[in-house]
Amino acid sequence: MTENRIYNFNAGPAALPLSVLEEIQESFLSFKGSGMSITEISHRSKQFDDVINDAVARTKRLLNLGDNYHVLFLQGGASLQFCMIPMNFLPEGQSADYVNTGTWSTKAIKEVEIQNKKCETVASSDDRDYCYIPKNISFNKDAAYAHITSNNTIKGTQWDQFPNVGDVPLIADMSSDIMSKKFDISPFGMIYAGAQKNIGPAGVCMAIVRDDMLKRVPEDLPSMLKYTTYSSKNSMYNTPPCFAIYTIDLVLKWLEETVGGIEKIEEINRKKAGLLYNLFDTSEFFRGTADKDSRSLMNVTFRLPSEDLEQKFIKTAQENGFGGLKGHRSVGGCRASIYNATSLEAIETLVDFMKTFEKENG
Amino acid sequence: MTENRIYNFNAGPAALPLSVLEEIQESFLSFKGSGMSITEISHRSKQFDDVINDAVARTKRLLNLGDNYHVLFLQGGASLQFCMIPMNFLPEGQSADYVNTGTWSTKAIKEVEIQNKKCETVASSDDRDYCYIPKNISFNKDAAYAHITSNNTIKGTQWDQFPNVGDVPLIADMSSDIMSKKFDISPFGMIYAGAQKNIGPAGVCMAIVRDDMLKRVPEDLPSMLKYTTYSSKNSMYNTPPCFAIYTIDLVLKWLEETVGGIEKIEEINRKKAGLLYNLFDTSEFFRGTADKDSRSLMNVTFRLPSEDLEQKFIKTAQENGFGGLKGHRSVGGCRASIYNATSLEAIETLVDFMKTFEKENG
């Protein structure tokens, strides 16, 4: 760990690769010899075109996307997508299927209902406080689309295999696990992700939309709320969030060139999560909160024997250079968010610390 | 000028104060000793609360805002506001007044019409290609609001005095001149500004909304499209664009503490623009395109005797370290955008260069 840096287990905004931060820092007063900061160059310049086009090209290579998929950069986070998705893809008279696996799914469903559009919650894990991913779901064959949250940051659950929805386009909020493991894009009509967990800073949302979905977009939507406005202008109908897109580009470059791609990061992510889950499975002191078959590789949620011990653990961890281990304010407990940029070494060091803490307090 | 930096006359994203860029650079790997980059800290942390609260407090002091005004940070740029304003503030059965002074006004009007809401263009300068600000406008006394674009980046015009609209709330897109000169906020129901010209980087839009306007917001709008969602959560209903807000805070700190406030920057801005307009008024070679009484202090648009000379001027300027002097792609010609962060020294050096160019090519 570089001097003065901590082990950052924040849930989002979250850790970024140190080499990416260093590159931003180094070139911050003059981007590629332009004599201007990346924050000062025109989005209509050749320099910025190269940045956004490189980010798109890297996304397509990393996720193995065909030409029928469009990589878009939007603002407003995943939360704005919650309302844009039904606006764009759910025609009057049709209904969409939603699986409710926690806070973010619930919010996505709420934004359909606010618009007086029809959706059906075809499965929910609210009966056990969202500690698992529902199985054997009956989706509607005539649904306009089926929506899932691929990873649940707050409850620490994740879809291991995506559900089979037949010909219905699948749509996934992948804010907290995009680019963390390999998956087949072909069932997906759209995936989207607020960048601030796995691929960049806050302030930009990546959306990957399939051709056939764009054909559904109604003509009469406000310009900034139509996906076609973004797809027809390479995400530059108006000034895009340049710095955030630039940072995404550097993170994806790091993922491709330094890490070695999605398969490689998946291998590392499985190893990282495994270290923590193995500890839970062999400890009476630390207890994972998610069902074993639904455990997230990204957000590892756990409890200690008492809330007092949890507070002591979080405080002692902080003093020892481990930040962000407090559970979400809505659920309490502890959580280690271990996105792509969190190193194996960081987890190993954390696990050592946890074992010591257990010895001293167990 | 610091080594390797150019004189940046970009229209937006635009120059930022060098001291701000240096502070960002210096603390980029560890924000205030946190061991995390500003891009890595939680938006729910005390650290980020301090940033956003400081940005709000500085805005209130600089613009002399009473407690009845709410300072909000949104995403999607001014362009998203174009559709949100009628959604939030224009009830069914009422009409809004718009003054059309160029591209951005035209786009704002279009977003009302897309929603099948009623608006009236009460004045327009399209008869002379938007080279002036209309005078003696008859506004409708029963309009829901009256909308203007305070400064027109593309055509280089600016409202010197704002129109008297009586009790009708005035709404202004101030993207390209917010914080550049003193004005009385009291007639305004709302002002808004994409940050990337005068107050920060691309990726955040500041909106200042008066209490009585918030009371109009319909309950049934999508959450992310309601101004009340932002006002009730200090702009943190979801993850805000943290880096952009942080940069705004530093720019406002520079404006308050280094420059000395709005009156001081206005004095400097008038001096800066004056140097260029004086040149036009005494030269047969450089010709300003805006009417004298409508000239912008922020975007100085001008022509040379021929398009060939304009191309040569832009190219030679670039070679001499002056960037961004090309006019907007929709109108051609030349433009020097001289926002707050552009120093008097930069303009003086540019004017010297222009005089030499005239001598050699006139």
Description:
- The structure is a homodimer of 362-residue chains.
- Chain A has ten helices and 14 strands.
- The first copy, chain A, is an alpha/beta fold.
- In chain A, the strands form four sheets. In chain A, strands 2-10-9-8-5-3-4 form a seven-stranded mixed sheet, with helices on both faces.
- In chain A, helix 4 (103-114) links the parallel strand 3 and strand 4.
- At the A-B interface, helix 1, helix 3, helix 4 and helix 7 of A face helix 1, helix 3, helix 4 and helix 7 of B.
Characteristics of this structure?
homodimer; 362 residues; alpha/beta; Aspartate Aminotransferase, domain 2; Aspartate Aminotransferase, domain 1; 7-stranded mixed β-sheet; 3-stranded antiparallel β-sheet; 16% strand; globular
